[in-house]
Fold each of these.
Amino acid sequence: MSWKISPVLRIFYPVESDIYSVYKDIIGTAMKLPRVDKGYRHLKRTRHIIGVLLKYGFADLVDRLGISGRLRMGAPLRPKFSPALSAAGRLRLALEELGPTFIKVGQMLSTRSFLIPPAYVAELSKLQDDVRPVPFEDIRALIEKELDGTLEERFVGLCPTPMASASIAQVHRARLRSGEEVVLKVQRPGIARTIAIDMAILKNLAGLMERHIEESRHYEPLAIVEEMRRTLMRELSFTDEALNVDQFGRNFRDVPDVLIPKLYPEHSTDRLLVLEYIEGVKVSDIERLRAMGMDLKRVAHVGTRFILKQIFEDGLFHADPHPGNLFLTADGRIAPVDFGIVGRLDRGLLDEISDMVVAVWRQDVDLLLRVLVNLGALDIEDDSIDLGRELSDLLARYYGLPLSRLDLKTLLSEALDISSRYHLRLPSNLLLLGKTAGTYEDLGRRLDPEYNFFEQVRPYIKKLLWRRLQPERLSYDAARSLRDLYDLFKIVPRELELILRRFRRGRMAIELQHQGIGELKDEVGRSFNRLSLSVIIAALLLASSLIMTLDQGPLRVTGLIGVAVAVALGLILFIFILRSGRF
């Protein structure tokens, strides 16, 4: 059925198309658009997204989503990539062109290697969110709206040129009226609405993937998009980031080698964050550090202790694995910035990490598989023989190798490649941890060619293992287990009494469910119908043949009619059997 297009929509649909199907499949029922202008924005943005995918050579994906025949793109789009460019490289370019939401999604995907092949992980890790800055007048208007006053009431010397401009916010340097040097992290105007629209469209595209691309269902695209939406919403909340800064400040209050910027909560809001200005050099700027006369070996060791304390002592770590977010002050202190993305490790996950390390050191594949089961990455009912063999081969290659020759990034890359092939759904915080550790190990080797990350990590692992055997920990675990047993014994007698009463009164019912029983029932029903029809045909043939043996003319005609009917029914039955493909 062809639908006429309104003059407004004709801007995007130059020819007539099945506009109802486009709206139903792409926009979807999840949006429930209450206003015409919102639907217009979503439709325009959806068309742009599909156009960029086609431009970068993803026509096959668009076809498989079932929308290429309905979404008329007008004039053919010229490809905007070199024919020699890989699919992973084309995806990175497409995400960069699609803007902030898709850049952030690509960065998050690069930390979830169980979803995409290693080549895509490597490309998406290159995504940078340096974007054109917002005009200062718009920034000024947002700040004054957030603070409910003029800039001059709070700040002096606010620099209109941003120090940095990213996809979600940009940073300006200023001075408080009390004299402290600060930086203002200001959320880009309208970015929350942009991300909300893009994530709504991504949710519907994920729904199309689950509906039309069968192999994608294993990865649950809708659940992944929802997780990313929640992550982005948290990053949009500067209130959460302020809490992170405050927590890091408490964690490193007594560590002289680390400087956490001071938070000014009285000047901060959900879209404006005011922090102490840190004068320093990026740790990744090796040449400037050498020119300053810094002891690079010391810097590497201080940085390692900084990240290991976060992981093994605090359970809260700076999870944006970008060396540019780590500065070194003139007096040699490590100063992290940008606390929008953090990882959290609870006690249970730390215990599994320690077991994983023990399994690697002892080449205990069974223990490693049990850790994967405990993490929810592997189903206990899955056949893990092939996985166990691959893990055993991986451990054997690195067993006995001097720690100085171990490369964490290479080891993690091989392990993540195995997890991708076996669809292991590792916890996102664990993946963030692996990527963060690998990035800082690489930075450590650049600072000090003789740097050995594993030697630095060993004391923390031993401390973590010993902590599990401390009397306080053992007594706490024993008390918790006894409490669970007490609750169980308190519940069981009552539940047994209820079961016995129902059984005695005849109210006990057992419900059995068998997977596929409905299909079996239908098949049995069809078989009985065919059998019944066969009996009828056989009886009709036999009766008609007996009638035809009689010499009476009218009866012979009746017999011929019966034979014809039986033959016709037989042909129909034969055709149905052929169409079913089963004899």
Amino acid sequence: MCGIFGLFSKDKKIDGKEILEKIGLEMLNHRGPDGFGYYSSSNVFLAHWRLAIIDLKGGSQPMNNKEDTISIVFNGEIYNFQELRKELESRGHEFRTQSDTEVIIHAYEEWDRECVSRFRGMFAFAIWDSRKNCLFLARDRLGIKPLFYAIHNNIIYFASEMKAILAQSQIPKDINFDAIAWYFSLGYIPAPFTIYKNIQKLPAGYTLKIDKTCKQLNKYWDVQYSPNNSKSSVQFWDEFKELFRESVALRMISDVPIGAFLSGGIDSGIVVAFMSLLSSKPIRTFTIGFGGEIGGYFDERALAKTVSQRYGTKHFEYVVYPKLSDIIGKIVNAFDEPFADDSVIPSYYLSKKTREQVAVSLSGLGGDETFGGYERYLGFKLSNYYKLLPFFFRENVIRKMIEMVPERADGHYTINHLKRFVRGTSYSPFEIYYEFISMVNNRKNLDIFKDSELMKVHFKNVLESLKTMYETAPADDPLDKVFYMDLKTYLTDDVLALTDRMSMQHSLEVRVPFIDHKIIEFCATIPNHYKIRFFSKKYLLRQGAKEFLPPQVLNHRKQGFSSPMSQWIKFDLRSYFDELLSENALKISGIFDPRRVRTILDEHYSRREINDRLIWAIVIFQEWYKQYMLG
């Protein structure tokens, strides 16, 4: 894993020394502390911070081809590089290193931009082709690795993190108000948007080719949801096992020590089970727990230890205490834009603890998106049956009763999910989904903004964009459309973005065997009734995992590495949040209505409504504004 940065000027000479001074040698050092290199010519600059994982001696970058006509900076891993190398050698290519980076160079020479379709892995790379005088950028199919770019005054800038682009003083930092609406709708900003008007994310599964005359953005991968109803659940499970075994084995290829994140859930447990079966040595596993007054309910250390004992892993634990003031600035700095998933807190500490022992860790991320593990999927499916009840009874009896029930004292979301369910199920299928995922929209919480009428326009843009995505999703079944949307937005721009930034803050590479494009494509053929059956989520995975995991893990309610933010706000950190969201504090950005924000807090404290996501989103936005707009 590495950090990359560069630029290509279409019509001006560039000063490599001046660029180096702006980015500084330490700018992305956390992404690659093992080495720094750069390439500079009259109109191109490439920089690379290396985290050495494969070919420790020969994999330094930027790397050139034999003729020095092609240069590359690359972040990620190509898991099938050995197989591709053999094919390329048979076609006459000669290799000088054992690295996967050199395989990309020769693959580009052989197949040009179509080379990306042959890679199995996670990647973001930039190739400078002096023969064609063009820059070629590429990002992996699922967006496991990030890539940002900006075009300003005929110069294209790109980087693994926006801070390297923002270091170029000529790049304007104007705020994109559509992005603010995306952020307060979803808790994150999906590609191609960023919080800045002039910087974009290269979407997952896309390439970008730029020369002096044109810009070509090309989509090279997508997934089609086509359920195969001719197979039994046993057939699906047997095929999945073989694919997953291969995926885990590929991700265990490393020239440095490797481990695994282990929560008390099925997904990480399955990963550890397969790693243990494939390894002759004990696997190192890492888990997180919570201290403070209320951490216990969210603490899965006992379940993780059960799996560890079953597979004889060398197990490490770490306890997180509610001291957000120590890390909130670091979290914001890792993203360079507002990002409101509070799982960043345990992920930050888990990555820190894991890096003390290994340089690479496997994770169970992606199991929920591929097998139907989220509550909203169950709610979406059950809404079809709930709608069979008379409208009057739903709205005037059931909904009124549910709205009167206080949120659970232990901070769990059971009542909150019921409230969201009864509020949304009278809408269209897309609107039901939107109601489940959004914190703010044109029907709820819009009055947190001082100028709510202005923000209506931007939230309408978000709604229309998501609706178009839903309607054009390559799927017939409404639930498959929802799976597709989460794959393209939530998985890439929340789950994977979080994992990348928090792990790379500590120079840790995280690999995700569930998020292999072959597995994604295969799981898109599994019918929904094998994913969600009655009230059981992840039915097929749960049934198949019985041969690998103990009953207490299989039957435990999903938690994963989430934080007890709801309880922290009410108890351990109440005074801290009161201070951060006081009327004076909210003047920093000037966009929020202090009275409405106070109401949001009071609703949360009194258990009338769980507002932890929205409260945390406002806090993070304020901290971002202070660091990046006023700093």
Amino acid sequence: MDKRYKPEQFEEKIYQMWEKAGAFKPKDKGEPYCIIMPPPNANDPLHVGHAMFVTLEDILIRYQRMKGKAALWVPGTDHAGIETQYVFERKLKKEGKSRFDFKREKLYQMIWDYVEENSGTIFKQMRKIGASADWQRSKFTLDKDIVDLVLETFIKLCKDGLVYRDLQLVNYCTSCGTAFSNLEIKRVEKKAPLYYIKYGPFTLATVRPETKFGDTAIGVNPKDKRYKKWIGKEVEVEGLIGKFKVKVVADKQVDPEFGTGVVKITPAHDMNDFEIGKRHGLEIKQVIDFKGRLNEKAGKYQGLKVMEARKKVVVDLKKKGWLVKTDENYKHSLGVCYRCGTTIEPLPLPQFFIKVKSLTEKALKALDEKRVKIYGAGYDKVLRHWLKNLKDWNISRQIVWGIRMPVWYCEGKRDQEACYVVSKTKPKKCDKCGATKFIQETDTFDTWFSSAQWPYVTLMTNKAGDFKRFYPTSVMETGYDILPFWVMRMLMMGLYLTDKVPFKKVYLHGLVRDEKGQKMSKSKGNVVNPLEVVEKYGADALRMSLVMSTTTGKDSATGEGKIRGMRNLTNKIWNAARFIVLNYEKPKEGDYGDSIQDQAFYKKLKDVSLAVTRQLNDLKPGLAAETVYNEFWHWFCDECIEESKEGKISQKALMEGLRVFLKLLHPLVPFVTEAVWQELPETEEKLLIKAKWPR
């Protein structure tokens, strides 16, 4: 053995050795244990968040494999819908082009080619940090067999009466050109002017004077005595493009403490107003189009973008003497696109929705019956809160990249009351209206709709018998930040499709922050690039730094100093092994090494093994890493090796201790432990990755 461990000389060779030996495939026999990898974007490069989930899941898989279970880790990638299209559109923009320059089929093929060119990148990079996934079982959310199952799920939902099409006000990003569900909207607190304007006989307050061309009523609270005499009456309002009449309606949703207690009702451009409009049968008058510009109903303001129109309207209100006052420090919550940061525009659009009530009830029942356990303090309550308050799920997306909805409109109609047929292939005749001509819906499914079925579709479309053997899966490991986006929906859809939970346990890891606890960002220059770290310090150092002392549901700190410290651990393992191997002499016959010191050594060794085993069984890999690190470094190296030099502990006991510690450390730092294992004398188990866990 060389004097120093050099990871660059071992890691690639060792990984190839594991793959050649088929070490990542589940055994034909044994208790099944399965983890489905959260599918990253197909063309994403590896970042520190990926490195975290890969490390944690690989630790669990390696541990269970050594415990003798048929351990399966299924890798996969996600087409990622708007995420990928957004990245591709930025690429087009640099080339002076946009998505509008291409027909649907051409744009889809261009994105497909782009993804295919970059696909596999992240899998290659995951290998570099030791991911022992069964790559031959890899799946992609746009694989034909996956798509077929997703379409079948939608058709089943329709047949079960759980899907409806309705004109609703949706969260629309005029930049990305698509609607989003409520879960995907980022809320930010902002200061904005609150304008008090004359409105017929009233003065009312609004932050959106530019939408006044879409007003169809005036609202007051039914208990507000100031305006009781006006309720139900029609009033005439002097407007910037002419006089108009609106009715005064009483609704408990109107806050009498806001502004003057009078509000304008614009059902086409405000979520609360839309609900009020439904209750009072108000007209939905859209004055902002899907490009974020005012339309012909705004008269001379037509064509102006929202913020331009707002400024122009305010100026004109001042000229007319209708602007009473302005509160410049009004704070309110604003919805912005989580992708591009554009202010979300509530717009009326016919969309497909899933009725979630029966689905959430099943999920809540599964939690109550403890069929699934959430690891992460407080997140069981968070999940329950989302399930109890979830609104119907808008699954329509106005983008090209994704799974196109299997909806066919009769005679090409696609208005609010359109007649349609749900079918995987173009229908011949509509049973409802008799139509024989159809045009397919252009919307695609929300990417979370397909990924919500991920455990089910991956195992159903993989090797024969996988679903029966490995479903429900053992653990779903992912970040706490996508608990409502993904985990909740997987639970809902898994139970709907199979009557079984898709996973028995949910392990939620936190965000990775820098060593000062700050969020990593390029502007701060504190981003850890996993690939650069692996090249500099080795994969084991990165892995150990990510998992050491972490706790479920809590953010953790990692930086170059911590990684460098874990590189020292790999050197410590190597040097300890080198000393023991160089000084090892084969025990003579009859030498059982049963001195009092050896017996005490073996007892402590067993206690350490039991502690680490218990911690991994309890899904506490951060604590297990801390335990084995401290016991190996401070007890085994600092005390036991020194005592062996004095003859207090036999070489046989010390060699046995090394073997045990290599096994305990292997799930955490697989490369250096395997490299050392190959140097040990008299080793019956040829590969450490396949060795039995200490008992």
